Amino acid sequence: MKEIDQAILKKVIIERPRSSHKGDYGRLLLIGGTYPYGGAIIMAALGAVKSGAGLVTVATDKENIPALHSHLPEAMAFDLDDKQLLEQQLEKANVVLLGPGLVDDERGEELLQTVFHHSNQDQTLILDGGALSILTKVEMKFPKAHLVLTPHQREWQVLSGLDLDSQGSKETGEALMSFPSGTILVQKGPATRIWQAGHADFYQLGVGGPYQATGGMGDTLAGMIAGFAGQFPQASLYERVTVATYLHSAIAQELAEDNFVVLPTMISQQIPTFMKRIQKDT
Q: pLDDT for 248-269, tens place per residue?
């Protein structure tokens, strides 16, 4: 087990070059929030934008768009049923997050198939929430994109075939070998672990706690992972995902000093301040 220390945090979160622009920090497409789970994709978008993503576009039910823009005017949005625009946006994005608030139904299956069909080897594809549920039922060949999976323990049980009592480090590492080479696994739980297929070692969080046990926590984490995946090219994708995951719980732990429960939107609001503190810390 590897330690998440100050060295990896400072390796990932670096000062931005003065000459940079929004296109340097990721073109993200977030897909989800089908009725009645519109809040999930809004929380994911907040996590992505607050993490520093350059351009964030959200594909969701059109009824969610006014609420999204009231919370986050920085994000672009369009109706998920506009298939032509969806395909165009899939071609433009370098990071695609599919699943927060995505209902596991026929429409969801079609979306997963569309995303897989249009993904390419230069993209990062993050599968979360409903996308993972659909994936366990529908047999599809994984695309060539850089794959990140963010299951909680029961989702990982279905994906891996490992029951809750058998999700030890040895078993999980072996199960991950059946996924495409380089697949990154964020195995969410009381002590979240971050893996990469083909590597025996892993990172494990030493921060976080039960004050995070509230709806939307995973959606915010998925958005943060997407935000980090679209920037910081000096670090590996695995390191970027690890640091995003760490920050999510580290911010929550700090907030829990004064709050009985920590809401996902409370974490999002603190991301830029926390990142700046790490970047400045010597």
A: 999 999 999 999 999 999 999 9
DSSP 8-state code for residue 3: -
* 8 Å CB contact between 275 and 229: no
Cβ atoms of residues 100 and 30 within 8 Å: yes
Secondary structure of residue 265 in the 3-state scheme: helix
Q: Which amino acid is at 240?
A: R
Nearest CA to 182 out of 133, 251, 134, 125 is that of 125
Locus of tokens 């919370």: 71
CA distance 261 to 219: 17
Query: Tens digit of pLDDT for each residue in 152-209?
Result: 988 899 888 888 777 788 888 888 999 999 999 999 988 899 999 988 899 999 999 9
Q: What is the three-class DSSP state of 153? A: helix
Supply 174's token pair: 């072996």
CA 261/CA 274 separation, integer angstroms: 19
Helix or strand holding residue 126 (H, E): strand 124-127
Structure tokens at 108: 């969801």
